[in-house]
Amino acid sequence: MIVADMLASFTQLIAQAQQGGALNWLVEKFEAGGGFMYPILASLIIGLAFCIERFWTLTRSRINTKGFVVKIRKALEEGGVEKAKEICTQTRGPVASVFYAGLLRADEGLDAAEKAIMAYGGIEMGFLERGLIWISTFITIAPMLGFTGTVQGMIEAFDAIKEAAQISPAIVAQGISVALLTTLFGLVVAMILQVFYNYFVSRIDKLVADMEESSIELIDALYEIKNKKK
After folding, report:
1. C-alpha distances out from residue 100 to 28, 36, 72, Å
2. How far, in Å, CA of 189 to CA of 17, rounded?
3. Those residues with Cβ within 8 angstroms of residue 176's Cβ, 6 or more apart along the chain or in another chain
4. Of 185, 172, 179, 180, nearest in space to 38 by CA
5. Smallest Cα–Cα separation from 46: which of 180, 181, 192, 182?
6. Which of 131, 85, 113 is closest to 216 using CA atoms?
7. Helix and strand counts by DSSP (H, E) for the chain
8. CB-based burial of residue 22 (10 Å sphere; 0-12 exposed, 13-18 middle, 19+ buried)?
């Protein structure tokens, strides 16, 4: 019975949204949600701003790693370290930056080059993860704001009962509406940002794996060049 009532209510909400337009329905529910809807909306807007920045940064960081490694190997064989560094400066992304850091120390030996790669790899990873902490923060804050609005709505409902000295659906409807709407919007904002956050984490993990794998290939290439010179 409860499930049937919930489905009926959900169907009614969809029908209202279709009749008056989804945007108008959202505006109406936003205004009915009370003051806590504004910080929830701010969490969504600021969180999406960080998402857009991370998406742009990670998209620019992506390159054809295997093709880049082939170019570096060819450059090392034909023009040495200087030629390889020149290709790195002409290529964007963390992999090229890590390669350049290793090639700068190549003359000092393979150990020095490997340490430089590891150190700069950590720096590049920090750049890739920059901004994720704020997205994670808004994922946490949005539902907390929603639950706080829920508490406020219930307080308003009980205050209305106290003033009327009686219980009726009309008296408590406003407070309960605020309580449910703030919870709903807070959870929806958190879910939207969580999807973006998980996507960025997977992209960063892929980039880090590419950096580690390609760095090993660079060390191997430097080792081969060194043995050929002997």
Report:
1. 55, 50, 10
2. 19
3. 153, 154, 157
4. 185
5. 192
6. 113
7. 8, 0
8. exposed
Q: Under a CB-based contact definition with an 8 Å cutoff, are residues 116 and 84 in contact?
A: no
**What is the residue-wise DSSP string for 119-179?**
HHHHHHHHHHHTTHHHHHHHHHHHHHHHHHHHHHHHHHHHHHHHHHTS--HHHHHHHHHHH
Which of 127, 145, 222 has the alpha carbon at shortest distance from 182? 145
In a structure prediction context, what are the per-residue pLDDT tens digits for the chain, which is 230 residues long?
A: 433 444 454 455 455 555 556 566 666 666 666 677 888 888 889 999 999 999 998 888 888 888 888 888 888 887 787 888 888 888 888 888 888 888 888 777 778 888 888 888 888 888 888 889 999 999 999 889 888 877 777 777 667 666 766 665 655 566 666 777 788 888 889 999 999 999 999 999 888 888 888 888 888 777 777 666 65
User: Residue 43 has which token pair?
Assistant: 């969490």
SS3 content of the chain, % helix, strand, coil (to 5): 90, 0, 10
Q: What angle do CA 210, 215, 219 make, to 5 degrees?
A: 155
Using DSSP, state whether 208 is helix, strand or coil: helix
Residues 6+ apart with CB under 8 A from 197: 132, 135, 136, 139
